Amino acid sequence: MVCSTGSFLRVSVLASIVLAPRMAGADVLAQPDRPRGSYVTVPSVVTQAPRPQQGGSAPHILFLNRCSGGVAISGGWPDDNIVDRSGILGGTVNFPEYPFGDASWNEVVEHTRQIFAPFNVLVTDVDPSPMPHDEAIVCGSGALAGFSGAGGVAPFTCDVIDAPITFTFPESLGDYPRSIAEVIAQEAAHAWGLEHELKCEDPMTYLYGCGDKTYQDGDYPCGEYEARACECGGPSQNSYQYILGLFGSAVPDEQPPTAAIVSPDDGDSFAVGDQFDIAVEVSDDTAVEVVELYLDGALSTADMSDPFGPWPVVDAIAGSFEIYIIARDAAGKETMSELVHFDVTEDGAPASEDDGDGGGQGNDGDDGEPAGDEAGSEDGGTGAEDMPGALPPGFGFGDDAAGSCACSNASDRRGAWLVWL
Questions:
Q1: Residue 123: helix, strand or coil by DSSP?
Q2: Domain of residue 199, residue span
Q3: Does residue 206 sit in the same domain as residue 305?
Q4: Which of 6, 222, 258, 372 is 20 to 30 Å apart from 174, CA to CA?
């Protein structure tokens, strides 16, 4: 759409009434005295941004940003999520990390995916930059961003905004993953040109008390608390058909990921105390969600952000070891890589085929099956049998980064081989 220089960009603010679906006996209509949204006019600019491609093309990407470690978003128009600039902020705002932990966050992501499941929209919490995408900041509060009482805020025109940043405020909404996801959905669609809608079951509404919201395939009046003419023309809108017209229907995920360990090579040998990386290559027709690393049949660690790996091995100990990875995509399809065996010996020379007790953990070299819980240290030290899911003694500690986890349930990790990003 080409906008005249005299047009305006409106900002839609969703107030914290979205918590109301969890209130017993709530009326269907929102009460006027509840916190409510407003429109803030901001001068627009001429834009030649094309409308998104419809069905049959690559999915439209919606990036959910939990602000890991904190994120600074600067003010300035036009929006540009590659450089973290928003046209609806009055200046730079430092957003704290999503406050409710990993389990709550994973629910938010899953609920958001369910809401957008009918459409060719890929919802991810892995930053796809520099690829074009929409970005939903899911951090902080309305007051912090300059919109006191709001649960979410987004730029709005009657068309699609290029590279937009929308905001959902979990500190204002509370730890209610479904409600947070519904606010994300409303704010994302405002950036595509959808208005508030007087239909309780639709995410574009201010109404509540009717259960989970999904985009409704029907013509419903625009409005917050009462019907009004739609600002973009006509008496009604159909949110479902509008988004379908922009991005097309969901493309079935037919292909599982590819998964390979590229280093070390099968049959490699290392000397005791060596340092090396376990490097992998994974890909998918949509997006890889997690890569799990297994040592001798036991889950050792998992990486949930791209790039996946590498995992460092520090101060390797003697032994024969077997590793593989499993890559899993958003549809739950998974692929296991080929097995990779490597030896760690005193001098770095390959272990003989009949030498199965080189002092470390691993399989016995006879049947190629993972040794699992039967593997262990014979000197009473802290081994894999003492620390389920941990790598055996010798892997060093690295920096713990968001999106990775070491899967050990032991409280004392001294002397353990841990793969850690």
A1: strand
A2: 8-247
A3: no
A4: 222
Considering the entire predicted model, what is its pTM? Answer: 0.62
DSSP 112: H
> What CATH number has the domain bearing residue 290?
2.60.40.10
Left if phi > 0, otherwise alpha if psi is -120 to 50, otherwise beta: which for 163?
A: left
Residue 414 lies in a domain: no
Do 301 and 382 fall into the same domain?
Answer: yes
Q: Are residues 161 and 30 in the same domain?
A: yes
**Closest to 273 measured CA to CA, from 180, 394, 192:** 394
Q: Is 207 left (phi over 0), alpha (psi -120 to 50) or beta?
A: beta
Same domain, 221 and 312: no
At 268, is the secondary structure helix, strand, or coil?
A: strand
- The tally of domains found in the chain comes to 2
pLDDT digits (tens, 9 = 90+) for 368-418: 444 333 333 333 333 333 333 334 444 433 333 434 443 333 333 222 343
Tokens 């419903």: give the residue.
220
Strands (E), 337-408: 340-345, 404-406
Average pLDDT, the chain: 77
The candidate with the shortest Cα–Cα distance to 257, out of 301, 287, 299, 280, is: 287
Catalogue the long-range contacts made by 143-149 (C-beta closer than 8 Å, 24 or more residues apart).
143/172, 144/93, 144/95, 144/169, 144/171, 145/89, 145/93, 145/95, 145/169, 146/89, 146/90, 146/93, 147/13, 149/15, 149/16, 149/35
pLDDT at 324: 97
Output 326 or 377, whichever has higher pLDDT. Answer: 326
Query: From CA 247, how far away is CA 57, in angstroms rounded?
Result: 8
Task: For the chain, state the CA radius of gyration.
Answer: 26
